[in-house]
Amino acid sequence: MTITNRQVAEHAFLLPLYEDDYFPDHVLDRGRAVLLRLCERIEAERPGDLAALYRLTEGATEEFNALEADFEAAGSEIETVAREEIGEAFWFIAQAYGFPDADGEQLIAAREW
Asked: What is the pLDDT of residue 1?
């Protein structure tokens, strides 16, 4: 599925992490794919309220939880900088899809990082 939201389609997700050699690009690519799949699901399912959005972001957050092992295997981890950047990406997505009242912490409440 192609992302139709222009703001999202043009956004460089996780860019600060790609610019830091501590974070392996091949794992960041998987994280970026998680974010893009979240956008595709939002566009396909069109959540009508925050509760529906949070259900979608919970699944994406759990995918990031699974990536922690990949980060560790590559000598990295989802630490403070990465945690903030990932959280910011979720918040950006919520805003771009018309959820200005989304709570940043609630968007990633299922996180284990």
From this structure: 76
Asked if residues 62 and 45 have their Cβ atoms less than 8 Å apart, the reply is no
Residue 24, sorted as left (phi over 0), alpha (psi -120 to 50) or beta, turns out to be beta
Question: Secondary structure of the chain: what % helix, strand, coil (to 5)?
Answer: 65, 0, 35
pLDDT in tens, 70-80: 999 999 999 99
Rg over alpha carbons for the chain, rounded to the nearest Å, is 13
Does the pTM of the predicted model rise above 0.85? yes
Helix extents (H) in 48-79 = 50-73
Q: Alpha-carbon distance 78 to 69, whole Å?
A: 10
DSSP 113: -
